[in-house]
Predict the 3D structure of the following.
Amino acid sequence: MWHEDMLWGQILRSTVAHAEIVSIDTSEALATSGVYAVLTYEDLPTEVKNYGLEIQDTPVLAHGKVRHHGEPVALVAADHPETARRAAAKIKVEYKELPVITDEASATAPDAVLVHENRDDHHSGHVPHPNIVPRQPIIRGDVAKARERADVIVEGEYTFGMQDQAFLGPESGLAVPSEDGGVDLYVATQWLHSDLKQIAPVLGLPEDKVRMTLSGVGGAFGGREDLSMQIHACLLALRTGKPVKIVYNRFESFFGHVHRHPAKLYYEHGATKDGKLTHMKCKIVLDGGAYASASPAVVGNASSLSVGPYVIDDVDIEAIALYSNNPPCGAMRGFGAVQACFAYEAQMDKLADKLGMDRVEFRRLNAMEQGTIMPTGQPVDSTAPVAELLRRIKAMPLPPERQWESSEGADVRQLPGGSVQHHARRGRRPRCRLRGRHQETSASRGLRRLLHRQGAHGGHRRRARRHRAHGHGGGRPGRCHRPRADRPHRARRPPGDDPPRRHPGGLGRFDVRVASDVRHRRRRQERLRAGAREGPGDRPPQDGHVPPGVGDRRTPAGGGKVVTDGGEVLADIVDVLEDEVVELEEEWRHRPTEAFDLTTGQGNGHVQYSFAAHRAVVEVDTELGLVKVIELACAQDVGKALNPLSVIGQIQGGTTQGLGVAVMEEIIVDPKDREGAQPLLHGLSDPHHPRHPDHPGRCARTRRPARPVRAARHRRGPHPVVHPGRPRGDPERDRAGAQQDPGTARAPDGFVTENRLGAASPGPRSSGRCAARGAPVRPPSRTARSLPAPSPG
Amino acid sequence: MWEGESLLYVLRERMGLPGSKNACEQGECGSCTVRLDGVPVCSCLVAAGQVEGREVVTVEGLADFAKNRSCGGHEGGACGTSLQEAQGWFRQGHRLADRRGRHLPACDARAIQQAFIDAGAVQCGFCTPGLLVASDELLERNPNPSDADIREALSGNLCRCTGYEKIMDAVRLAAARQSEPEGV
């Protein structure tokens, strides 16, 4: 994006995690040649100086204190990006450091420093400590009584790291001041409407004077639900009267958006000798970082989906998110469900092993099905083919042994560490996970669909739809919409249009859109059938009603013809409809959801559930601890695939991000760092993100259940993210697995003299991540990370 | 003009060629891949001054470049797409996308771009330009690459959306089309 007379904006970010701001001196920066403006908190134009998705706790620019490393403190606009960077570096900020809150113990200590003083948000009244954002308990049945029935009980403590979305297109946008005193903002975002609601009050402008245009997205995965540079660019543009462009570089991007919540999970499961689960107790502690972002919704998902796709009648669940001085966390694919999945699947393995049962069979025995009651009291009232998915995933043939061998000898690239080096072991880990759609607000306002359709001409149905700026890029339904970067995609919200309702998590929007399309298509088909019934030239009945049993044989087909089942062409659609222009306005709402009860957690909080099962086949060099993922297989219930190419693409992409979080991706926040909770970041290679060679040589095969499911009720969401759990998290599980099923621990000849996985020393989990990865010999994946990445070609 | 500007910055901000993307500006993601005298490089790591007197092929000129090559034009050399043509490439590309299933002229049909579209190898599209340049270079070097060859050649290009499988499909498809006899 480019504009005549354009300036470049730069953000100065805090270099400490928690500190009072003693003074800010901008004089030297302002005196720099080429600098047009320097803004701090004092320059904000209105009384509204905070924003936030649900809780308005995030300052546009730091006021009085900074709460995390990389918090925006000042803004610079200059005529060249390098000038702006250098000027920002000349701003002198004096900090007085405060104690750093980094985990549950330091956050909830009685004398803990409060990250946010004087909270008055709607969660503050019912949390046990002001450093807890929300707390969601879910209690159902009688755990104490059910515990007595259990023949085996397993407990586990699990740690889940912080993952970054690492979307490829960094945060960027161009704000152009307009003559009417407003501003035109061209921006890469996930959620124009929500952005607008947060931006306009801070600028002191009515919403119709902030005109937003989606200019391509470049990946998001939840990371663009929160604001990044939007307000900053607008402030600079309005102050200087010139267009201002801000583009984060990769390093800044890591600080400029929220991450996936790291978590500590404590689980207890019980089961009877015949393999039936009796009860579950768990506590899930998510680290929300300095600002709330989507933490309440993530807690809702983590708690309500914490049993997984298994039937357990007696549960005692508690999930909380902390305020801390770590980087803020919010929406990312899976949204609380992923963290819980990692823990409950590990528990399933442990239980099956303790009972001496097959791990898959144990899961199938306890699989949820249609009619199961969730811990929240919500019945699963649509298809839930969990057992079927597990059966399918187990039935898939395994990849060949010794896959590194070819007719020309061994291909070193196919060996563990041949292209990428990480730690785990080979083993089959079928698991199943559950996703729900969480809605906190009731759907009473609904999402109004306005569809305007014109009649058929020459077999092409032209459909003009009122273009609403949907969060996912304003795309057309059922198609893979790819906004091009650098070419503004016009998705402007018409003035006076209904404000859209808030959908936490970004799932509802897409689903509603697709469902509406399905309904729309059905109407259209009904209308055409009716037309066909009356024969060529007859006008279709105006109400589009089809009497039962009539017109079934005649169905419209492609190519603009109306044909019978046998393929006989009855008429052109254009003849059937003649010059009739069909206009249709339709409103559709998904069923309402309700907030979970604050003490019992009961309530219909989800629209519906979707399911997937995974199997990862991993090869490990047990001497060097190097890993190669040979195959990732996934069976997912996607319902009716409206766009199969897109469905498969989403599953493959989601699975690869799952591979990433399982074996390589993690933002490590170092609490012992001199400057506080500083994320240890360097770029896309550190933390390492999956590349071509990291991806299994065999494709992630995707299947759908053969039996049809209702399309409108059971749809593939935008996030079929199917994270295979992490083989690295629990060394005991690895060890148990190695003893249980040593046959699965394959390794290349000449690389292994003995299976040393059994000797892996887990060590205290708190002492370091290397130990937690169960690395037997040479722990650090840091070693691997520091290897130079291959350059293109 | 500041002498520290990268080739990528000059292409995008000064010449109006936004095809090459700036996803990391540190040579890790490959989204900014261009060919400098035939060699694929990360344009974010090349100082603009280094390019003086050398040939650059960006993704905007890739279709012309491939067409020249397959029709017996210069070997491995740039084909002299004018700046104006390159800036107008987008619309052409868009038409290509809209005409899925329609046969384009023989040379174009084998373009790597069409293979990416047909295979569904584009989701957000940010990594795509770099992958196109890198894939095209791979197929020029090795018309029948094995899967391992493809993985190796594209290992410098990061994609966050597709999970790579469809990209593999696209390169295989392009290779297969390339080996088809002329005019099919």
Remarks:
- Chain B touches chain A through 56 residues (CB under 8 Å).
